[in-house]
From TrEMBL:
InterPro entries: Amdntrnsf_FN0238
UniProt protein name: Amidinotransferase
Gene3D superfamilies xref list: L-arginine/glycine Amidinotransferase, Chain A
Keywords per UniProt: Transferase
Source organism: Nakamurella antarctica
Superkingdom of origin organism: Bacteria
Pfam families linked to this entry: DDAH_eukar
UniProt GO MF annotations: transferase activity
Length: 310
C-alpha cells in the first residue's frame, strides 16, 4: 500500500451535465458551448457510470453519488471542493465560480464521518466572501510522501489560502508560474502534473523560469521517482490529469483513453513498471476542461471497517 494511492474514492454522477459559462474565461482546456452534442447530459451520465464500474472491477472502492440538480454543471469534478488526509483530516475549499460553490454536499461529508475515522473538518469556504480561492486538489497537486503541495499560480490558487492550508495540514508550498504555448496561464495544477508513488507525469515545459523548473523536477525526483516529462501536446490531451489508485492486485493509473493514447511507448513502459494503466472513456466530460483526475476525490482516511463490496 502507498500513501500516495488511495484505495477508496468519491465520484459524482451528473444527471444534467452542461458546459459551465462561469469557468470558460480562464479554462483554456474547456471547449466552447457550440462543441457540445445535444445529448451531452445523457452521455456524461453514461461515462461516469462506466468509469465507476471499470474502477470497481480493478478493486477500487467507489462511493458513487448522484447529482440530480440543474444548478451545478461541474458537479462531476468533486476533487475541487474537498480533500481528505491521513490522520482523519478533511478540508473544504473556497471555489471561484459562484455556481460551483453549490457543489459542496453535506451528505458526502457525513458519509466520510460514518465510514471513515474523521477527526476534524476544516472549512475554508468562508474565504469566498473576500474573493480568496483555493480549488482543492485541482489547484494543488499533493505529494503525500514528501509533504509538498505543488501549485501553479492562478486566480484559483490564492497564496493566502494556500499558506493556511499548508500550515494546517503540514505541507510545504511550492508555487510556480505555468503557461501553455499560447502564453495562457494554467488554470489548475492537476492538468499538468500527476504525482505517483514511483513516477511523476510532469508538464515541466510549462514552467518558464528555468531555476524553478529545475527545482520542481529535483523535488519530484527526490524520493526516488522517475520524472516523465510531458510535451505541450500531451498536456493538451490530458496526459497530466491522471491519478494513481490502489487496486486489488496493485496500483493502477486512472487516466482517459485520450490521455493514454498520447503517451509514447517509452513513457508507457516507465509508468507500467510501477502500475497498470487503466484508460477510461470520458470524451464528453473532457469538453468541460477536466479529465479523469478531476472526476475523482481520493479518500486518504482510515476506514472504520473493511468494505465487503463496492
Amino acid at each position: 500500500m502507498s500513501i500516495q494511492a488511495p484505495a477508496s474514492i468519491v465520484m459524482i454522477r451528473p444527471h444534467h451535465f452542461l458546459p459551465n459559462p462561469q469557468t470558460l474565461s480562464d479554462n483554456s482546456f474547456q471547449a466552447p458551448i457550440s462543441s457540445y452534442h445535444p445529448d451531452v447530459a445523457a452521455r456524461a451520465f453514461q461515462e461516469v457510470t462506466a468509469a465507476a464500474q471499470t474502477l470497481r472491477s480493478h478493486g477500487v472502492y467507489v462511493h458513487l453519488f448522484d447529482d440530480e440538480g440543474t444548478a451545478t454543471p461541474d458537479s462531476v469534478f468533486p476533487n475541487n471542493w474537498f480533500s481528505t488526509h491521513a490522520g482523519g483530516h478533511v478540508a473544504i475549499y473556497p471555489m471561484t465560480a459562484p455556481n460551483r460553490r453549490r457543489e459542496r454536499r453535506s451528505d458526502v461529508i457525513e458519509l466520510l464521518k460514518r465510514d471513515y475515522r474523521v477527526q476534524d473538518v476544516i472549512d475554508y469556504s468562508g474565504l469566498e466572501q473576500d474573493s480568496i480561492f483555493l480549488e482543492g486538489t485541482g489547484a494543488m497537486v499533493l505529494d503525500h510522501i514528501t509533504r509538498i503541495a505543488y501549485v501553479a499560480r492562478s486566480n484559483r490558487a490564492d497564496p493566502i489560502a494556500l499558506e493556511r492550508f499548508c500550515t494546517n495540514f503540514g505541507y510545504e508550498p511550492l508555487a510556480f508560474d505555468a503557461r501553455d504555448e499560447a502564453g495562457i496561464r494554467c488554470y489548475h495544477t492537476n492538468v499538468m502534473l500527476c504525482v505517483g508513488t514511483d513516477f511523476a507525469l510532469a508538464g515541466l515545459v510549462m514552467i518558464s523560469d528555468r531555476e524553478r523548473r529545475a527545482e520542481v523536477a529535483q523535488r519530484l525526483a527526490a524520493p526516488g521517482r522517475q520524472v516523465i516529462e510531458l510535451s505541450h501536446a500531451q498536456i493538451g490531451e490530458f496526459a497530466g490529469n491522471a491519478l494513481e489508485l490502489q487496486g486489488d492486485h496493485g496500483r493502477i493509473l486512472a487516466m482517459s483513453t485520450r490521455a493514454e493514447r498520447s503517451l509514447t511507448p517509452s513513457q508507457r513502459a516507465r509508468v507500467e513498471h510501477s502500475c497498470i494503466i487503466v484508460p477510461l472513456e470520458v470524451p464528453t466530460l473532457e469538453l468541460a476542461g477536466g479529465s479523469v483526475r478531476c472526476m475523482i476525490a481520493g479518500i486518504h482516511l482510515e476506514p472504520r471497517f473493511a468494505p465487503a463490496v463496492s
